[in-house]
Design a protein that fits this description.
The protein has about 120 residues and is an all-alpha fold. It is built from three helices and no strands. The longest helix has about 70 residues. It starts with a helix and ends with a helix. About 5% of the residues are buried.
């Protein structure tokens, strides 16, 4: 009296639709995770390539400045020592300001990528 073939068929269709919806939702989550992973990896690769170029430029400029200072000071090793001192000072400044210059921007970038709506 309470159940009929029509009700059972409707429930079966509903269950089938729910299974299909769950499968599609899972597929969407996989694609979203893949997209975000690719974005993070591409940002890391771009950062690495840029870092390589910056290091190459810094090395060339360091040699030029060291030899120039060496000529001015009359001692090439003293010129290189001055350049090393400048790098040490820069290292200390970056270390002191690491939270503002490195951590916060990195966290912001990762949060933008990971929390981006599809």
């Amino acid at each position: 009296m309470f159940s009929s073939d029509n009700n059972i068929e409707t429930i079966a269709q509903l269950v089938e639709q729910l299974k299909q919806y769950g499968g599609l939702k899972l597929e969407m989550l996989k694609l979203d995770a893949t997209e975000k992973t690719v974005k993070i990896i591409s940002a890391l690769i771009l950062g690495f390539v840029l870092l390589l170029f910056v290091c190459a430029i810094a090395i060339c400029l360091s040699f030029a400045v060291a030899y120039s200072l060496g000529g001015l000071l009359g001692s090439t090793p003293l010129g290189f020592l001055c350049v090393a001192g400048i790098y040490l000072l820069l290292l200390i400044i970056v270390y002191v300001r690491k939270k503002a210059w490195i951590e916060r921007p990195l966290v912001k970038l990762l949060a933008e990528i990971l929390l981006e709506e599809v």
